[in-house]
């Protein structure tokens, strides 16, 4: 159970007028409330989502909640392949000449994405790894020149925020000391499918559905570990005045409950310990815009945050420099060989 928030965006964030921010995966959940909280403070926020209909409906809802018309703009942002991620970044760069904060939210393994996330997207790589890691990697890299340019402006405060998850700690395979990213094998369907194969095989049996859903969700742990390793490696490669942070937003009860709506006891327990969607955005907002982060840049650069803006402890694998470099090199080589046109 999380303690009461000691940080509230409505109270603790500064005026963000003049700032331009991109938040991906933002038409619902934590991404949506992150957009709302940052826009309330005056930032111009691009709400990234694949669906124009869902994105614009989200903006209509934000405006109904008091956000000034035009302050939140829909950005077509499908990062499901390197080519799509590049196109999304180019689309944004055609609209703005600065980018102060990039916050990436990725696929969460809710009920609707269990099966799709484990299916191969390209070259045998699972959709979850393709989107959560490779797509995020390429989208960020494509925006990096603009982020660097913005960081050179007077009074700038450029940050790159990656929303990861504590699943990188919870998932047994993500903790495996033999884990290796020197090839694409760890990105592929068989790798995910082999985990917890018994429960996956019998997932159609009613009494095993909750357990099967949990094991499917655990396949995301590898992609979330990749998020952390990427963000850590990126911090070492960007100018010293850019801050990269990766974080665990917390367990949001509304998301969890939707996965297990037939199991009242789980809903009840999550109602007691889970965060609201708004609370789930607090750590993202802290990372993206708190003045404390800039004042104590060395404390937060390349670090892992947990609710609500506290420094957290990552897994042993998340600290492995060899794994970090393997991941970067393998991903870079894969994208170099991918047709981005």
Automatic annotation (TrEMBL):
The keyword Oxidoreductase applies. Keywords: Oxidoreductase. InterPro entries: NAD(P)-bd_dom_sf, SDR_fam. It holds the Pfam family adh_short. The keyword Cell membrane does not apply. GO terms for molecular function: oxidoreductase activity. PANTHER family: PHOSPHATIDYLINOSITOL-GLYCAN BIOSYNTHESIS CLASS F PROTEIN, PHOSPHATIDYLINOSITOL-GLYCAN BIOSYNTHESIS CLASS F PROTEIN-RELATED. This is NAD(P)-binding protein.
